[in-house]
Every structure is written in C-alpha cells, then in structure tokens.
Specification:
single chain; 473 residues; 8% strand; lipoprotein; Outer membrane efflux proteins (OEP); RND efflux system, outer membrane lipoprotein, NodT family; OMP_efflux; transmembrane; membrane
Length: 473
C-alpha cells in the first residue's frame, strides 16, 4: 500500500511538472505594437515655459473668477462623483491586496448522528447492522493560503493599483475641465456685457438719428420712407438688446449650475477690455509637457493595468499551490476533546492543482486580456495625438487672434468716424439717409465682431491652459 501511494504521488508530480513546462513554453508574452516617438517641440521652435505647471490661482488674475473656481471645487457635483469613484477603486485595491494574505477562520464541527443501515445494500460492515461514527468532532482554527509562486496575485494587485491611480487622474481631469469651463463661461459673460453696452449705445445713436430724420421731414428735406427706415433699424437693434439680456441670464444660470448653486447674480469684473490675457505664450513648447495632461496620464495608468492583467492571465495556465494549516481539539465526543490533552490536533494540508481541463476557458480569458491591452495602448496613443494637435492648433490661434483683434480695432475706429461723417454729410444734404443707416449698421456689426474676437482670445488661452494639463495640483 505504501509503495502504491508513493507511485501515485510521483506520477502526480510528474504530470504537474509536464503541464507547467508546456504552459511556460506555449504561453509567451504578446508582442505589442510600437508607438511613434513624440516630436521634441511644437512647430520646431525653441523651448518656452509650460503654463500647465502654473496653478489656477496664479494663472487667472481676476479675483472674481478665482472665487467662482473655489466655489466650484467645493460644490461641483462631477467632482464629488469623481471622489466617490476614487473610493470605489481604493476599496477594490484593498480587496485584491488582501488576497495575498492567508485567511483565518474559526471552525466548529459537530456530528450528532450515527450511520444507519444502507437501504440498498442492507447493512454496513458486512452483514451486521452496527452503529459507526462518521468522523470526530473538531473545534479550532483553519487557515487557507494560496502561495503566489508565479506572482499571479501580485500582478492582479498591481493592476488594481494602476486602476486606482487612473481613477485619481480621472478626478484631476474633471478638475481641469471644470476650471476651464468656469473660466470660459466667465469670459463669455464679460463679453456679453460689452456687447449689451455696445448695443445700448448704438440704440442712443439711432434714436438721435431718428429724431434728426423726423426734423428733416418736417422741413421737407426727407420723406416718410426715410423715417420708417430709421424706425425699423431702431426696433431691430432694441430687439437685439433683449436677446443679449436673455443670453446673459442663461449664461449666469449655466455658470451657477457648474459651481453647484442655484441661480443668482454673478459678481464679475467691470469690463473684459480692462482684463489682461491670463498668460502669454510663444510656440515651441516641449511636447513632453503633454504628459502632464490628466487624460494622458489616466490612459497611461490604464495601459499599465492592462499589462499586469495580461501577465496574470498568462499565469493562469500554471499550477497553483495552496496550504491549509489547522489547529484545534479533535475527538469522538466534544467533552472528551476538551478534557483530554491528547485531543489537541495540529496539521497542515497542501494542494497542488493544475488547470488541465480548463485550457479553453483560460485561453479565452488570456486572448481577451491581450485585446484589452491593445485597446488601452491605442487609446493612449490617441490621447497623445489628440493632445499634440490640440496644443499646436491653440498656439497658432492665439497669435492669429491677436492680429485679427488689432485689425478689427482699427476697422471699428474707421467705421465710427464714418458714422460721424455720414451724419454731417446728411445734414448738409451731401449724403442720403440710406448711407447713414448703412454706416450705423456696419459700425454695430464691427463692434460686436471686435468683442467676439477678444472673447475668443481669452477662450483660446484657457483652452491652451487646459490642453497642457493646467488647473489641478
């Protein structure tokens, strides 16, 4: 009997060893696609400091805007949701980390019944109907521990840790987007204030022109058609004023929603024209500054997590070793075990298992982990490419908008002079009322376009700040 058991043990060890060797040779690490290297700089121009490293308190020079951002960081519902996601990821990491340690369970086993005659064979122990104990009673502790001989559990722990870090980067991404969105809406609101002032100022000019044309009509120098044309222009401009007022209300409400409070007036600067651009920047930013972006760093952690998951899936093909030590009191009766010193039992059970008949299931899981790993890699590459083109476009746009604003400022000044000239010529009879109306319409359009350009300048700088990962600490 001893030789037979020894032979079976050797045979089992041999089979497990063959399975291990076969699994190690057949399951090799997958070859992943190579990434294109990042260009050294944007637009092949020398280096300049990254605005992404500047805190938002320093970047934005308007105390009203800083106060709104602080309120948003405390009350924004997306940020609060992101914090709870971090707690979920932290708990999952703790669960996986705990799998590396043995479990300890209290155990009480009590058998109250005796074995009765077998209904099919008639008796137990030959032809005699006897009473027999199935097994002894036991009270004590039992532990179970899977020995991580291949590092499979460790790989899972590292994967969950990278997911936890990726979740943290997700919160940073929410913060960056929220800071940028609050700033964008704030500058849009200031721009709408200027446009409303411009419209109301032009309403005053048009009212003066309407009174003038009425006087001209009374003097016989103008017709009723001219009066109607000036009146129609004035009504159109007044309706535009109400549209801007409604747009201001909706913009204020949208900003209040983002910072997590009910609609109320927004305290803001007196004019967008009195605020300097948050930060000036020339092209030539080192492209590795993109790696500060939360979305890129999040994708990087997700890629690392998928790498660890692939390693863990590879090691599922290998045998696993588990130990089950136990200590307690053991005897035919529980009172006897408590009274007799000999009832103390200490032992350990070991098990070496190999997934011989689960190869298809494990192979499917392994192939799935490889596909997920490639998706994570492609997502990482996509984030980098998207960030590079976004920063490159914003850098060019900042410079072009400065030139556009300068030209539109000159255009507005010329058209304002044209309105004065048209009014003077109309009074002297050298210009028609249509020329006056045209001049007034063009100057209003030019002033609104000039304000829109200044708004775009601020929004583009904010977008560049966000594109470089600014706004979080």
């Amino acid at each position: 009997m001893f030789l037979k058991n020894k032979l079976i043990l050797r045979l089992s060890i041999g089979i497990l060893a063959m399975v291990s060797v076969f699994a190690c040779k057949s399951i090799e690490a997958p070859v992943m696609p190579e990434m294109e290297p990042l260009p050294e700089t944007f637009l092949d121009i020398e280096d300049s400091a990254s605005i992404g490293d500047i805190s938002w308190e320093e970047f934005f020079n308007d105390p009203n805007l800083v106060s709104l951002i602080e309120t948003g960081l405390e009350n924004n519902l997306d940020i609060l949701t992101a914090l709870e996601r971090i707690e979920i990821a932290r708990s999952q990491y703790r669960i996986t980390k705990g799998q590396m340690y043995p479990t300890l369970n209290g155990m009480v086993r009590y058998r109250s019944g005796d074995i009765r005659p077998n209904l099919f064979s008639g008796t137990i122990n030959g032809d005699r109907n006897v009473v027999n104990r199935t097994e002894n009673n036991f009270i004590g502790f039992q532990s179970t521990w899977e020995i991580d001989i291949w590092g499979k559990v460790k790989n899972r722990k590292e994967a969950d840790y990278e997911k936890f870090l990726a979740t943290g980067m997700g919160r940073h991404l929410v913060v960056t987007d929220m800071v940028a969105e609050i700033s964008r809406i704030y500058y849009q609101l200031l721009g709408l204030d200027i446009q409303l002032e411009t419209i109301n100022r032009n309403i005053e000019y048009q009212e003066m022109a309407l009174e003038l044309i009425k006087i001209q009509k009374m003097a016989g120098r103008a017709t009723e058609l001219a009066v109607q044309q000036f009146s129609a222009q004035l009504l159109s401009t007044k309706s535009l004023s109400y549209e801007k007022q409604q747009e201001i209300i909706e913009t204020e409400n949208r900003l209040n929603f983002i910072i997590g409070r009910f609609p109320q007036p927004i305290e803001r600067a007196s004019s967008l024209l009195e605020i300097k651009l948050p930060y000036g920047m020339e092209a030539g930013l080192p492209s590795d500054m993109l790696l500060r972006r939360p979305d890129i760093r999040q994708a990087e952690h997700e890629l690392r997590a998928s790498n660890f998951n692939v390693e863990a899936a590879r090691k599922e093909f290998l045998p696993s070793l588990s130990l089950t030590p136990y200590v307690g009191l053991n005897d035919e009766s529980l009172p006897a075990a408590l009274e007799m010193p000999g009832g103390l039992t200490i032992g350990i059970l070991g098990g070496l298992t190999a997934p011989i008949f689960a190869q298809n299931r494990i192979r499917a899981g392994y192939d799935q982990s490889i596909a997920s790993n490639k998706i994570a890699l492609y997502n990482y590459q996509k984030r980098i490419l998207d960030g590079y083109q976004e920063v490159s476009s914003k850098l060019q746009r900042v410079g072009n908008l400065r030139n556009i604003y300068s030209l539109r400022d000159e255009e507005t000044a010329v058209l304002l002079n044209a309105v004065s000239t048209a009014n003077e010529l109309f009074r002297g009879g050298y210009a028609t009322y249509l020329e006056v109306i045209t001049a007034q319409s063009r100057v209003l359009e030019a002033e609104l376009d000039k304000t829109n350009t200044r708004i775009e300048m601020f929004l583009t700088v904010v977008d560049l700040y966000r594109a470089l990962g600014g706004g979080w600490k």
